[in-house]
Design a protein that fits this description.
Structural class: alpha/beta
Oligomer: single chain
Distance between the termini: 25 Å
CATH superfamily: Metal-dependent hydrolases
Strand content: 15-25%
Number of helices: 8
Bound molecules: zinc ion
CATH class: Alpha Beta
Strand order of the largest sheet: 6-5-7-8-9-10-11
CATH topology: TIM Barrel
Helix content: 10-25%
Order of helices and strands: EEEEEEHEHEHEHEHEHHEHE
Number of strands: 13
Shape: globular
Number of domains: 1
Radius of gyration: 19 Å
Largest sheet: 7 strands, parallel
Length: 323
Amino acid sequence: MTVLPAFLDAHVHLALIDPAALAAGGIGRVLDLGGWVPSAAAPPAGSSLESFPEARYAAQFLGAPDGYPSRQVWAPPGSSCPVAAPEDAPDAVARQAAAGASVIKVTLNAVAGPVLDADTLAAIVVAAHERMRPVSAHTEGAGQAAAAFAAGVDLLAHTPFSERLPDDLLAAMAGRLAWISTLDIHGWGRPTAAFAVASDNLRRFHAAGGRVLYGTDLGNGPLPVGLNRREIEALLDCGLSSDDVLAALTADFPGYPAAAALPLTRAVSSERVTVIPGERPTDPTDLTGFTDWLLGARSLPAHALPAHALPAHALPRPDLEDL
Ligand SMILES: [Zn+2]
């Protein structure tokens, strides 16, 4: 048995799934990127603290009035917060912070409606950083990933998939922001043209030293609730090593500069760990064996570990510098 820090899915929508099922699927920590706040002291009916992941969240989506996802059928009522002008940014960010958000989510989807102008986006980033919250952006449509980078956004909620990004932009991004992978949303095993674009961008971003966080956009389409084998395989196909994949899964919650200092909500469990039966294959080229082993993961509260198991912090971790 191997014990590791709790695996993080850095892009989920808890309002659209049954979070209690995540633990059995190996996910112990989640970053909710829009549309969810804890509703009460207790986790949702049918789950318990034992099975509920450690959760941090963005609360509302900040976007242009009538912009994405305010008109999407899947978006729960009240999940969007329109920001019309730079002077509206501080209030919009303050509202999310008051709701317990540890990250701010902005949407820049030029395909689905109006997007934030550069000044308003920059004002949101400034307001978020003043409150120590990183900003995560959904970017879609030509030029939107570059706009997010120019405004000082910290995280891209998806690997950019609308266009091939030039190498110089990727290199600049690699020095300053992290990408959340979400490759499998492009076809769910039947790769689309966007999957190819995203994979090519991610391969070059990773090669340039960019930080990649494992994330699935869980709640969006037919995705397994738990570790997604196809997402893991797609990351390996982009040139990440098995160590890189473990680093992408065990990264700290994104922070600006340290989300760890922010209060957790009541609807989170105590510290969780990942337990994987069997030993990790020793041959670094055995990626199928690695994936098979990894998919046996489940998440447990640390106190549930068998007495003979070492505590997670005493175990060797992949190189997590800067993550
Ligand atoms: Zn999403």
